[in-house]
Amino acid sequence: MSDKNEMIISGVPPEERTGTPEATPIQNESENLIPAAPNRQKFTNIRSDQRVVTIERNSEVTTQADKQMKHFLELLASLRSRHILTGKLEGVEVSESGEPRASLYYGEFKILIPSFELIDPPESFRDMDPNEVMRYLITKRLGAEIDFVVKGIDQEANLVVASRKEAMALRRRQFFFGQDRDSNNLLYEGVIAEARVVSTIRTGIFVELFGVEAFISSQELSYQRILDATTAYVPGQRVLVKVLSLVRGPSQSVQVMLSVKQTQRNPYDSIVEKYIPGNHYIGTVTMVDVNGVFVALDGGVDCLCMYPARGIPLIGSRVTVRIHKADPETRRVNGDIIHTAGRIE
Fold first, then answer.
1. What is the Cα 293 distance to its own chain's centre?
2. CATH number assigned to the domain covering 267-343
């Protein structure tokens, strides 16, 4: 396979080949690339005529050959009808020309997604090498769950070229512009939906919500302080989000603002019942500044404590706090650290 991901595109009309790399075919005969009846022997390490004896009567076992055939047919359906498939990004590779591309596996088939078919480039590369920037952005997404549409298959080499951006466009059309039987939008302001974490940085996370990527700052991740979102979230997670705002633009573009914490009950609404002055509660030190020591109590709120006389505990230390005051109006909890158990590594 060449560095430009050259593939035969079979079964896709020319007008639907958006985003497909311009390439010359690997083979001139498409029927050799995608035969009407794939050779079962190619996909198996057991004899195709060998019967499998199962432990339970009248049950079936899926052999490796069956699984590989199933994967091939699913890839073929995606190629011919733009059926959306899903997988997890496993690697980032660089061609001889320096172009980065993401890789994942669908059964025994290796899926390659060129960078321009995976993510939109930044508005400015800030005088840096565009290929290096795109490679970094793909690396930050490793482990993320993504959708893709097949653009070409090389059956002999078990290689596939795909597009994530085309799959995202299909998802947007279905969920942001589609309607239910009562002509209501499927997604709207105030709705709670499931999103995928695709990348994380210290100040927040990037998620994909049905074909739309959005950034959620750490202030909207939790009612407690989060100093580094990468310690709490990783690509590949699924999270519930609340749609705070939604703007449908031209050409089926969408902009959304999302919140994770607003899908949850506000723990500060019940601090009077949970935290009784004079009693002791456990938590983790999250921040130290001129105001004192901030402790994330296990009940879901932050407590501001005075500096302990025995020394300031390290961030990450497990501590016991004696509550002084829990004010529901200001939503503040104050206390003293009376015991430090040690730091969590």
1. 34
2. 2.40.50.140
Across-strand partners of 200? 205
Residue-wise pLDDT for 117-151, tens only, equals: 999 999 899 899 999 999 999 999 999 999 999 99
* E runs forming strands in 26-144: 85-88, 91-94, 100-106, 109-114
pLDDT over threshold 60, residue 7: no
pLDDT score recorded for residue 341: 81
188: Cα within 13 Å, side-chain hemisphere: 7
Question: Domain boundaries in the chain?
Answer: 14-168, 176-263, 267-343
- Terminal-to-terminal C-alpha distance of the chain: 45
Strand-pairing partners, residue 205, are 200, 216
pLDDT over 70 at 24, yes or no: no
Which token pair is 226? 């989060």
Alpha carbons 39 and 321: distance in angstroms, whole number: 68
Reduced to 3 states (helix: H, G, I; strand: E, B; else coil), residue 267 is helix
The residues, ordered by sequence, that sit 6+ positions from 232 with a Cβ below 8 Å of its Cβ are: 221, 222, 226
What is the CATH T-level fold of the domain 14-168, as seen in this structure? OB fold (Dihydrolipoamide Acetyltransferase, E2P) (2.40.50)
pLDDT greater than 70 at residue 57? no
Q: Which CATH class is domain 176-263?
A: mainly beta
pTM of structure: 0.78
| Burial environment of residue 128 by CB neighbours within 10 A (0 to 12, 13 to 18, 19 or more) | exposed
Around Cβ 18, how many Cβ atoms within 10 Å?
A: 12
